[in-house]
Amino acid sequence: MEIHTVTESAEEFTCNAYLLAGESSALVDAGTMPGVEDVVADHVDDLDAVVLTHQHRDHVGELDAVLDRFDADLYAYGDHPRRTAALEDGQTIELAGEAYEVVHTPGHADDHVSLVGETRVFSGDVVVYNDGAFDDGSFGRTDMPGQSREELIESLRRLLDRLPETVEALYAGHGDVYRADPVGEADSVRDVIERALDRAERREPKYPDE
């Protein structure tokens, strides 16, 4: 299976939208980059599914354009007028021929989910490797209305509880993809998430101006 970050050339603020191309094809989040559907079409002829980690605008801004272009099912935890399949905590879904467990991870958004596979996790915004706050394990912001640091902390704990030891890559909604050193000399994905949890548990502002 190949994974392409189809929003990597974006000039506007967007999430990372990941195209999984294998036995079938799936897009994790759609982002806000105009023309993202054309980038998807550069890699695959058909798109079978779009899966949303959550419905903040930077993750769904171009969702309609993608769904208008492709006859794809829309998987989402929260209600959406174009949703064809509801996600539930603990559910297993198949994306591009690989199985992923849906883990409900609210705090940054009520409808937030992470997708946990045997070798990789798509974490949305609940945990990222690097952003403007931290460079080696950061947590989603919780200073906006409707967000909760306490819920996010519990979500990170839940994610760690469900994380297989075989996971070696973290595909987050922002920042860089993190891949653990195969010989074990660098941090594991679990190390990165534990560091993010520790920082979140301090209850300090993520950004100085919060």
Automatic annotation (TrEMBL):
Pfam families on file: Lactamase_B
Segments passing through the bilayer: none
Keywords, ordered alphabetically: Hydrolase, Metal-binding, Zinc
Highest taxon of source: Archaea
Record carries keyword Cell wall biogenesis/degradation: no
Domain Metallo-beta-lactamase, first and last residues per copy: 14-174
Obligatory cofactor(s): Zn(2+)
Family annotation (InterPro entries): MBL_Glyoxalase_II, Metallo-B-lactamas, RibonucZ/Hydroxyglut_hydro
Recorded GO MF terms: hydrolase activity; metal ion binding
PANTHER family for the chain: HYDROXYACYLGLUTATHIONE HYDROLASE GLOC
Protein name (Swiss-Prot/TrEMBL): MBL fold metallo-hydrolase
Organism: Halobellus rubicundus
